[in-house]
Amino acid sequence: MKTKQLKQIFKASALALCLSTSVSVFAAAQPKDEIVAVVDNSVILRSDLDQSIAEITHQLQAKKQTIPPTEYLQQQALEQLITRQAQLEQVKRYNVKADEKSLNEAVLKVAKDAGSPSLEAFQQKLDAVAPNTYAGLRARIAEDIALQRLRQQLVTSRIQISDQDVKNFLSSPQGQAALGNQVHVLHVRVASSDNAVKIAEDIRKELAASNDVKAITSKYSTKDIKVDGADMGFRNLSDIPDELAARVAPLQVGQTTELISVRDGVHVLKLVDRKGGEQKAIVPQYQTRHILIQPSEVVSPENAKQMIDSLYIRLQKGEDFAVLASTFSNDTGSAANGGSLGWVSPGVMVPEFEAMMKSTAKGEISKPFQSQFGWHILQVTDTRQQDMTHEVQERMARQILGERQFDTELDSWLREIRNNAYVEIKDPALDRKKK
């Protein structure tokens, strides 16, 4: 097996290992008290190492890949455990936890993969093999969910994508292809010869003034010079070779590329037309204002409810919404503008707010309702259908660019976490530095 492939196995998340490893491998681990390494305030036991080696071996066997030498496998498995434990120390620091719903779903997936129809049946099956095996597996998966969330939060915060990065991507062949944009291109190739560049330059000038590619190629083709030309019609940029697509993407309609000299000759392309993806993002927007009353050290939840009810009664009697919002709302940002939140798109507000906003008729005032932020009253003053295609495209570009950077930043973050951790390897046979 190639070293790079093996490292990918070792770098796989522990949750992936749990999900892909047979339950019997997990349950077979027997507890041992021997400490093989200390990581910050935690320890790694021999049983932890044996289990990790069993999981990795199981994965390699499932993929019919060669099992590396025992010493190398032990060292790499230990390094994986050290890196994992260093991350778990960060989980404690940031108090990241798996919620019960996500944990049950993850454990249930393992249960179904193991042939158990329910968590109860799965627990009985595991604990029949070895006591407390189910609790151990559940705790392991809970840790891995927390690790995933920690990585997502901290690594994502390290990724910086500028407006210029987004603009560059959207204008690139990859960005144009992602948007579903198509180009109508004429393509001419002059086969390699002593004067291919000169002929290609002449063809380029004629293409600038004419789209009759058939007449142009016929004019310049001789028994000594082979010239091929084609009208490629509309096609996705992703269907054009990368080298040529990169030259076409920045062109304006009617422009030709510079001469492209490659092994098989000199190429010239002309952009005849361009059309974007047909799908537009038309979304409903709500011009909304609200009043927020938040419980605090001086305002009990009961008092907050009484205050919002009182304000609702005053609004029903005709008092000015903007004046009351400016005077009483705890959302200082919107209170300064009479409670106005401007035009609000779906997906921006918390679910309780969005649901009330969508169900409130234009001009009407909602009844008081509660969200995680406190008690609200809102009013929808206007609605519209807004073309958000550009904003959606920018969000898509940021997501793609972020995904491209994530693995690199994750590797960098993991190295930092590992380097900053206090590590003491108790077993000299496992310490690569002492070899």
TrEMBL record:
Annotated gene: surA
Which E.C. number(s) belong to this protein? 5.2.1.8
- Organism of derivation: Acinetobacter amyesii
Q: What does this protein do?
A: Chaperone involved in the correct folding and assembly of outer membrane proteins. Recognizes specific patterns of aromatic residues and the orientation of their side chains, which are found more frequently in integral outer membrane proteins. May act in both early periplasmic and late outer membrane-associated steps of protein maturation.
What GO biological process terms does the UniProt entry carry, in alphabetical order? Gram-negative-bacterium-type cell outer membrane assembly; protein folding; protein stabilization
Q: Where is the PpiC domain?
A: 180-273, 283-382
- Record InterPro entries: OMP_Chaperone_SurA, PPIase_dom_sf, PPIase_PpiC, PPIase_PpiC_CS, PPIase_SurA, SurA_N, Trigger_fact/SurA_dom_sf
Signal sequence: where?
1-27
| Molecular function terms from GO | peptide binding; peptidyl-prolyl cis-trans isomerase activity; unfolded protein binding
Q: What is this protein called?
A: Chaperone SurA
Q: Out of the domains of life, which is the source? A: Bacteria
Q: What is known of its domains?
A: The PPIase activity resides only in the second parvulin domain. The N-terminal region and the C-terminal tail are necessary and sufficient for the chaperone activity of SurA. The PPIase activity is dispensable for SurA to function as a chaperone. The N-terminal region and the C-terminal tail are also required for porin recognition.
Would you tell me the Gene Ontology cellular component terms? outer membrane-bounded periplasmic space
**Where found, per UniProt?**
Periplasm
Q: Which reactions does this protein catalyse?
A: [protein]-peptidylproline (omega=180) = [protein]-peptidylproline (omega=0)
Primary location group: periplasm
